[in-house]
Design a protein that fits this description.
heterodimer, A: about 110 residues, B: about 450 residues, mainly alpha, globular
């Protein structure tokens, strides 16, 4: 137990930074490569949550509360975005009966 | 601050009026409310208050908010014409436009990165719904989805940048960040990454190359009325927020972002204009032209001197007025149709002289022909750039505007085409004609007397 707690203390800010950079990159890759728009949507949420992890870590590291408060702002905004985003998805699904982003090719270059 | 509260309450009031089926009362209430907001906004001139370190309502904010309220008022009048025979969901559309305006207000008056994010999201979330407001129309659906995905994606970048900046400086406050930047010779890599991520996020939002790819699709698919809204209010808010951040925080570290932004601005101007030339669809052409205008607007951000703020303000004012006229004419011609080829303008001169005049003035102003407002907009931008020795950027911008003349003249030439196809006479109502007249007169007045607006935002 003692050893476990000790190893927790050695987790520095760079570990959090690395974790959230990886999560963020996974999110970006998901947005760019997946073709199902629900998965793309989840990837965007992943990006926002990567930011949340980092904000909480920075907030603790800087000894400043405002970062944690900002996490709540992001959560609220993300929830609003989910509400609107899912409504848009449902609206599109009703019209095209598919969740494949390639089915949407009305607008072209 | 009064303006913010007033506009938010107005939005709710309109929603309630819609819920209680008071259709007749909505438009007068909206116009009265927006006018009141315009007045309270004008009354805060020179007061420059800061609210809990979150918002700073100075002259910069007052001038941009005034411009945005004016644009929204014009678009509301157009909406009353556009939806004259349709009575479902109008209250929702009006209310969402007002909420978008609230977001825009927050975006031009933020004093903390938290408020920047909140403002952008208030603006964007309402717009995602507006873009998809024609639910049964596939193009509108597609535009809404694309705008939503791209907007949320861009917010992610912006947020990551804000977070890195917070991690390094320990604060979201613009002034603290600015002190940090000015007080440190060597900035950590994290901070520089943060600046670049914020730059990417903003480039997405204002539609600058290479993050512009969503713009033409979204502008084309969105209902024309909302496209007018995106091209004016949203672009104004975006560029004002962009400049505000770079002016206060990052002016001392232009080595980090200058070259990147220079390339972005030059590429935006060239690609926007060249692509607009190749379009046969009027709305898509206007979309590419708005990309090109975003490029011109980036030049004062690049120059970042004491003239920049007024150059951006004058340019956005001239551009908004002209765009609203251009979209009004497009709305009048195509109504609810989705297909709007450029030759749709054929025979307009015989059909409706007021619309033709408005079209000519709007296109000439967008192309930058003297003595219209658009010319002085470009002139001020170029003077600002010369002040900071951005001569090559100016040459690129001038080349861009020369290309621009070609495609802005296309609709005008079609309008004066004599072989008139048998189209029915287009009749606008009083509100519609008022918008056209206002567009013509304002473009002329601020073009002939540019001093009226030239020094507004001040420092």
């Amino acid at each position: 137990m003692e050893e476990l707690m000790g190893s927790f203390n050695t987790i520095g800010i760079q570990h959090y930074l690395f974790l959230s950079a990886v999560l963020f990159s996974i999110g970006v890759t998901g947005v760019l490569y997946r073709r199902n728009f629900i998965v793309i949507f989840m990837s965007i949420e992943l990006m926002l949550n990567a930011v949340n992890v980092l904000l909480a870590a920075f907030s603790r590291f800087n000894g400043d509360q405002s970062g944690q408060v900002f996490v709540f702002f992001i959560m609220v905004v993300a929830a609003a975005e989910v509400a609107v985003g899912l409504a848009i998805l449902v609206m599109i699904f009703r019209n095209i009966r598919s969740t494949d982003i390639n089915a949407l090719r009305n607008l072209k270059w | 601050m009064t303006t913010l509260v007033l506009l938010s309450l107005l939005g709710f009031l309109v929603l309630f009026l819609g819920a209680f089926e008071q259709k007749k009362a909505i438009l007068p209430v909206v116009i009265a409310g927006l006018s009141a907001a315009f007045v309270t906004n004008a009354l805060s001139w020179d007061t420059s208050q800061t609210f809990y370190g979150m918002m700073r309502y100075d002259n910069y904010a007052v001038s941009f908010v005034g411009l945005m309220i004016f644009s929204v008022l014009m678009i509301m009048l157009l909406a009353s014409y556009h939806f004259r025979n349709e009575d479902s969901h109008i209250a929702d559309i009006y209310a969402l436009m007002i909420f978008t305006l609230v977001g825009g207000l927050v975006m031009v008056s933020y004093a903390s990165l938290v408020m920047l994010f909140v403002g952008i999201e208030i603006l964007s979330i309402a717009l995602y719904i507006l873009a998809g407001s024609r639910r049964m129309n596939l193009s509108s659906n597609e535009a809404s989805l694309k705008y939503f995905l791209m907007g949320a994606f861009a917010s992610g970048f912006l947020l990551f940048g804000i977070t890195l900046m917070y991690g390094v400086t320990g604060s979201f406050d613009l002034l603290v960040i600015s002190d940090y930047v000015n007080g440190n010779e060597e900035l950590p890599m994290l901070f520089i990454t943060g600046v670049l991520l914020i730059l990417i996020g903003f480039s997405f939002k204002i539609g600058a190359v290479p993050f512009h790819f969503w713009t033409p699709d979204v502008y084309q698919g969105t209902p024309t009325l909302i496209t007018a809204f995106m091209a004016t209010v949203v672009k104004t808010a975006g560029i004002a927020a962009f400049f505000h951040l770079f002016d206060i925080c990052f002016s001392a570290i232009d080595g980090v972002w200058f070259n990147i932004l220079w390339v972005i601005a030059a590429a935006t101007i060239l690609l926007g204009n060249v692509s607009a030339v190749m379009q046969n669809e009027a709305k898509r052409m206007l979309a590419w032209s708005s990309v090109a205008h975003a490029g011109y607007l980036l030049i004062p951000v690049l120059a970042l001197n004491e003239l920049s703020a007024s150059a951006i303000f004058y340019y956005t004012a001239a551009y908004s007025v002209a765009s609203i006229s251009a979209f009004a004419v497009l709305l009048g011609i195509s109504q609810f149709s989705n297909e709007m080829p450029v030759d749709q303008y054929k025979g307009l001169a015989k059909n409706n002289p007021i619309m033709t005049t408005a079209l000519v003035i709007a296109m000439f102003s967008l192309a930058g022909i003297p003595p219209l407002a658009g010319f002085f907009g470009k002139y001020f931008v170029f003077v600002t750039a010369m002040e900071s020795n951005l001569n090559i950027a100016v040459i690129i911008a001038i080349a861009g505007s020369l290309i621009g003349i070609y495609y802005y003249f296309k609709p005008v030439i079609f309008a004066f085409n004599q072989e008139v196809p048998p189209i029915e006479k287009i009749k606008g109502n009083a509100a519609f004609n008022f918008v056209l007249f206002a567009g013509i007169i304002i473009s002329l007045i601020i073009g002939i007397f540019p001093d009226l607006l030239a020094n507004l935002p001040g420092n």
